[in-house]
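haha ok so turns out i had the wrong file open the whole time. this is the CORRECT one, sorry everyone. sequence first:
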Amino acid sequence: MNLNTHSAPSDGSAQLVKADSFLTLHYRLSGVNGDVINTFEGKPATLSLGTGELSAPMERCLVGMTEGQRGSFKLAEGEAFGTHNPEMVQWVSQSLLDRLGTQGEQYAVGEVVEFPAPEGQGTYAGVVKSLREGEVLFDFNHPLVDQALTFEVLVIGVL
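then structure:
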């Protein structure tokens, strides 16, 4: 991880970001194809560190920053979202898809499909890679797996 930060004017009252902080921030995540997420042009994000809302390497970039501080971090290939895991590419039967979603739903290659997580713990997503009679091939790897990314941030508030 490369770091380039710009300090905010400090009067000693700025809150320090910790591993379990609740934050308000603007951030931009960009890769080789440009911006993936950019909140600088709209409403800032609010999130809790340590809850999985950001990847662990991205969270580590934020720890130690202070309110008002800007930073730009270079994350190497695979650092932010890991490397491609072939075990995360799986055929799913149409009957299971019917139970999890809408009966008889049709899927298209490239489509992102959300699934309920076990025990109601949110959702997870997979990208449709291929179709065959009675089954759909999903890639459950993160869409930014294996990519080098730039993570720019402006910490607005630390609670």
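The two ends are 26 Å apart (CA to CA).
again sry for the mixup
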